[in-house]
Amino acid sequence: MLLHSYVNPAHEARVKEIVRERLPHAFVTASHELSREYREFERCSTVAANAYIGPVVSEYLREIDEHLDRSDSGARSC
Asked: What is d(CA 44, CA 50) in angstroms, rounded to the nearest whole number?
């Protein structure tokens, strides 16, 4: 979380891009994507919660996606 990314997220976006390049399998979250709140505590706690639960939810959704791809239920046709 960069201090003024709620106003101009360019630097935070670049930091995220660099981290993703160097750690392609890491779950990376940026505060400007989650909250445009100007208060640091609120943005930081939101990002921390997302960083904690995000990988678990991402894996769960990936597994559901794979299951739907393998199944013949037609659930993907909507």
From this structure: 10
Question: pLDDT for 1-33, tens place per residue?
Answer: 788 898 899 999 999 999 999 999 999 999 999
- The neighbour count for residue 34, using CB atoms within 10 Å, is 15
Q: Do residues 50 and 29 lie in contact, with contact meaning Cβ atoms separated by under 8 Å?
A: yes
> pTM of the predicted model, to two decimals?
0.71
* Vertex 35 angle, CA 22 and 51, to 5°: 45
Handedness of CA 70, 71, 76, 77 (dihedral sign): positive
Q: How far apart are CA 76 and CA 57, in angstroms?
A: 20
